[in-house]
Design a protein that fits this description.
The complex is a heterodimer of chains A (about 450) and B (about 250). By secondary structure, chain A is an alpha/beta fold. Chain A has one domain. Chain A has ten helices and 19 strands. In chain A, a hairpin with a 2-residue loop joins strand 1 and strand 2. Chain A is globular. Chain B is globular. With about 250 residues, chain B is of the alpha/beta class. Chain B has a single domain, classed as 3-Layer(aba) Sandwich (Rossmann fold). A six-stranded mixed β-sheet of chain B has the order 6-9-10-3-11-12, sandwiched between helices. The chains are: A alpha/beta (about 450), B alpha/beta (about 250). At the A-B interface, helix 8 and helix 9 of A face helix 2, strand 7 and helix 3 of B.
């Protein structure tokens, strides 16, 4: 395969310099670059990528989307979301530019930091240095993934070339229940790379929603995102990753959370957009009493392809994790779910659950599901299950016999299929928004 | 224009399968309630489903006419909008949508226009009163976790709110205790009037003590073999179906 690559070591260096980054960060970018160059791309022969072919993804032929200094103007689509979302504070990125950030004074007064990663790098470099690349980096593989280092290829690309990011720091004991929202509006046509770093200090509490939005149709585009969540003792974070990118996007997301003693993560992935997308969500239970709820919703139409990977890594004893991913596929679209519960030796009294259920709305739609367990302790409660089934004709007939046209009947069945995930989203405006996306997708 | 639901020489089979209906002829004039009785496997439930447009069956011969107009080519939703309603023997459980929200969507789809909350709740209230039912049934997910009796009662509530012209009640009486049966009957009787016709599919005569039919038809092996007044149901209760089966063979 001949590649005209738009990427180079000089690009990495130049980017780091233009962003005014300290030397340590520059060196880490270069280390990531070396790894990226060395590793092959995952192929369908790579176990974790068996059902997702990325050979056509233009990782290296697109121009990197770099900051241009835009300020102020918030795209209409984002304005509409902000108006509906009932947020405590929010940040808006257009491309790589942080065009707007807002956090009430009351939060700032308590020491909450919420702004662009590079802004924090100037004011509190030690906070960034201590946590950046701590959870997602170019050498972060756990369990069977580690046997196939190409799993680090895309995260290495992201680490070498990320152009922007968000930093949220919640100080010790500070709690807020209204969400902070981050909107990333991408116009397409580029390689985009961004990072998110969330640090919850001891006994803090926060809610964070991240949304990816673009025009509905774009030129071929690649977006890579990396989210790192560090939860200190007793810290609680509710986190959502909502991906609604347009046709033309290839989206690759890797997220990993580290949970110390009694820390809790409530995570939600909503993967509804893009031509092809893959979301990897990993939680590491490092302290006893930690708990990770990992929810996923996806719904594909047309020729969309979505892929999910979850990891519940139980290192400490007496921890809890629960994965519930539910999806529906229409037309010729395809969904993939693979997940691993890995319980280390000594992680006794682990409670870990994993469920994936798929609903097929057409004969040509397809869902693949691969749940896995690797248990190294003997006193644990673990279960996993998966199912894939077409819409039951008798259910459709029942709803239609009351007068509902087929698309509405299907809409109700899709919502019904996803109901047990939807009811676990306590943020009412977010749940309504997700329901409206489902409704819209059934109609078209 | 004919004011009736007419089943004309209806033959139907399971898609790519066995023939179930073998020439059903039946007319339910608007304003009347007819009962279709028969032993298990006679094709009674199939008749209800075929009239409502179940895609699991195909009509191979004959016709179904609503007020003189053939509905064979219409989908189940279009048939509902023409005024048909099927109370299911086994209503489907659908989590994620509340009973009331679903019913409002259905009413709006049927009418093809927005129905105001006030009007909708007035209809609901009336139905609940007749069925002596608590409002809590409205906010529960559609049939989700409902008992068998609650499901049947809910079908009748849907019928009362949607106000069909012709309703088919598929063994709505089966599995009901006497109190629940009386309530269901009360709901059907409340619908009675010049603009409502119904086909009551049942195995037992019991419900006909509470909903007195204008006519009773007996179905054996995919055909109506004899018809009569309410006294026919009494005779079946006393003597069973054997004599009708003999009658069917003789024909």
């Amino acid at each position: 395969m001949e590649l005209t690559t738009a990427l180079s070591r000089d690009l990495v260096l130049g980017l780091s310099q233009s962003l005014g980054e300290p030397e340590w960060l520059q060196n880490q970018r270069l280390a990531a670059w070396e790894t990226f160059v060395k590793l092959p791309y995952p192929t369908t022969r790579t176990e974790e990528w068996k059902y997702t072919d990325i050979s056509e993804v233009p990782f290296e032929s697109l121009a990197l989307e770099r900051p241009t200094g835009r300020k102020g103007a918030i795209p209409e689509a984002v304005q509409a979301r902000i108006a509906q979302a009932d947020l405590a504070g929010y940040a808006v990125f257009v491309g790589s530019d942080l065009v707007h950030v807002e956090l009430p004074e009351a939060y700032r007064a308590q020491g909450v930091i919420f702004t662009g990663l590079h802004e924090v790098l100037k004011e509190r470099p030690e906070l960034v240095r201590e946590n950046l690349f701590k959870t997602v980096n170019w050498n972060d593989l756990v369990g069977p993934q580690a046997r196939r280092p190409e799993n680090s290829k895309i995260p290495a690309l992201n680490a070498a070339l990320f152009t922007h990011g968000v930093f949220l720091y919640v100080p010790k004991g500070v709690e807020f229940s209204k969400p902070i929202g981050v909107f990333k509006y991408l116009e397409g046509g580029h390689l985009s790379a961004s990072r998110t770093l969330i640090v919850g200090d001891v006994n803090s509490q926060a809610v964070y929603i991240e949304e990816y939005i673009s025009p509905t149709q774009v030129a071929p585009s690649v977006n890579t995102s990396a989210t790192e969540i560090v939860l200190k003792q007793g810290a609680k974070v509710r986190h959502a990753h909502i991906q609604l990118l347009g046709q033309g996007f290839y989206h690759f997301h890797r997220q990993r959370a580290l949970l110390e003693r009694d820390a809790a993560l409530n995570d939600l992935v909503v993967n509804m957009g893009a031509s092809l997308s893959r979301a990897e969500v990993q939680s590491e239970m490092l302290g006893p009493g930690s708990a990770s709820e990992m929810l996923g919703l996806y719904f594909t139409t047309g020729t969309q392809h979505v892929d999910h990977y979850t990891l519940q890594h139980h290192v400490a004893d007496h921890a809890y994790s629960d994965v519930l991913y539910k999806g529906a596929a229409k037309d010729q679209s395809r969904t993939v779910y693979a997940g691993l519960i890995k319980v280390e030796q000594g992680a006794q009294k682990t409670d870990a659950y994993q469920t994936n259920r798929n609903l097929l709305l057409s004969e040509d739609a397809r869902a693949d599901s691969v749940p896995q367990l690797e248990i190294g302790a003997n006193d644990v409660k673990c279960s996993h299950g998966s199912s894939t089934a077409p819409v039951a004709p008798e259910e459709l007939f029942y709803l239609m016999s009351r007068g509902l046209p087929r698309h509405m009947a299907q809409q109700i069945l899709v919502k019904g299929h996803m109901a047990d995930v939807l009811t676990r989203i306590p943020i009412e405006p977010l749940r309504q928004y997700i329901e409206s996306i489902i409704e819209e997708k059934v109609r078209v | 224009m004919a004011n009736e639901l007419e089943i004309r020489n209806l033959h139907a089979r399971i898609v790519d399968g066995e023939a179930i209906l073998k020439g059903v002829n039946l007319v339910v004039p608007k304003g009347q309630i007819h009962a279709v009785m028969g032993p298990n496997g006679a094709g009674k439930s199939t008749l209800g489903k075929v009239i409502a447009g179940d895609p699991g069956y195909e009509v191979t011969q004959g016709d179904i006419l609503v007020d003189g107009e053939s509905i064979l080519e219409l989908g189940p939703d279009e048939r509902a909008r023409k005024g048909l309603f099927l109370a299911f023997q086994y209503p489907v459980e659908v989590p994620g949508v509340s009973n009331a929200n679903f019913l409002r969507l259905a009413l709006q789809a049927k009418r093809g226009e927005e129905v105001s909350v006030q009007e909708f709740y007035a209809k609901l209230q009336k139905a609940l009163e007749t069925l002596e039912w608590d409002e809590s049934i409205l906010t529960r997910y559609l049939n989700d976790g409902f008992s068998g009796g609650e499901k049947k009662r809910n079908e009748i509530m849907h019928m009362m709110v949607l106000e069909p012209i012709y309703a088919i009640l598929d063994e709505t009486d089966s599995g009901l205790d006497i109190d629940a049966l009386k309530l269901v009957a009360k709901g059907v009787n409340a619908m009675r009037g010049p603009n409502f016709g119904a086909l009551l599919i049942t195995h037992y005569q019991r419900i006909l003590n509470y909903i007195v039919p204008d006519a009773v038809h007996v179905m054996i092996d995919g055909r109506i073999v004899t018809s009569g007044g309410p006294e026919l149901a009494m005779k079946l209760e006393e003597q069973g179906y054997d004599w009708v089966k003999e009658l069917a063979l003789a024909n």
